[in-house]
Amino acid sequence: xxxxxxxxxxxxxxxxxxxxxxxxxxxxxxxxxxxxxxxxxxxxxxxxxxxxxxxxxxxxxxxxxxxxxxxxxxxxxxxxxxxxxxxxxxxxxxxxxxxxxxxxxxxxxxxxxxxxxxxxxxxxxxxxxxxxxxxxxxxxxxxxxxxxxxxxxxxxxxxxxxxxxxxxxxxxxxxxxxxxxxxxxxxxxxxxxxxxxxxxxxxxxxxxxxxxxxxxxxxxxxxxxxxxxxxxxxxxxxxxxxxxxxxxxxxxxxxxxxxxxxxxxxxxxxxxxxxxxxxxxxxxxxxxxxxxxxxxxxxxxxxxxxxxxxxxxxxxxxxxxxxxxxxxxxxxxxxxxxxxxxxxxxxxxxxxxxxxxxxxxxxxxxxxxxxxxxxxxxxxxxxxxxxxxxxx
Length: 392
Ligand SMILES: [Fe+2]
Prior knowledge:
five-stranded antiparallel beta sheet, oxidoreductase, 2 domains, RmlC_Cupin_sf, disordered C terminus, mainly beta, binds fe (ii) ion, metal ion binding
């Protein structure tokens, strides 16, 4: 980063000519009032970070002696030997909505909704099942990981890989949101094409924490999730004691930038059938096109089941004057495209769902899609009606 004095502040003029500047460090983000942490930027990078100068050994991983009398540990992606990530049911209402496969075989995924209220002190979580992607819908998540700290706002997402210990504070009080857990693969950034298929998240939009540690020799409990079960063990120090690290297996968050540019285009999503199952939710605002999807809710479209907008909207969209317009302002939705067939849980169908047999009236003629569309809005949950129950 260039020395600050070489950069004139924005919105000011200066008569001082630039005389040149040299970078003195890698780019990191600037803390803000709602996110006090600093991040490195990029996706899939090999990063390096040290909270104490000289803590990271240069050139090799296992010198005989480390600076500050530190010891080293490896977290291997292919054969994770330790790691804990998860919320416990005491501080998090976690309900399974849908999924497929099983974590024992490392095949498949699961989708959850969560309600969280408070941090249980001296407790960390580690999910050995797989990587988790968290989408807060209400309430920021102040996450301490072994690799550093992340503040995740509603409208952003965070990915915490399997085997990484973390704990979550709720700086805004109670919160809720969505979690997707994948048992096998790691998340990748899709090829974007000329403007991207639906969005244009760029690698540099993703933020990775910098090393941050504490000295804490008190008793801690680590809750580990493995093959769908929770285990605990105690240790005599905080798990967040990593002074320096390097590698590419690090948690990250993303502001979910969304932008689409088009002309001479039928703008609403046309009627379609997907090989993928669609799980869609609202973070905020209103889904402008149709239906009953509210913030905190989810919709489910099974593979190859036809769905889209009705005839009235089709008429409107095909006759409206095409002028530049902002759409979806104040709202944010997300879509999980899942290549496998997934089934809804008993909880989603019986205790949570607002299962709707969508009327086929108003479909575009000719009736290409003559069978009844089944859609449901699940997961609209509040702080009072979600009671975690095992076995659902
Ligand atoms: Fe769709």
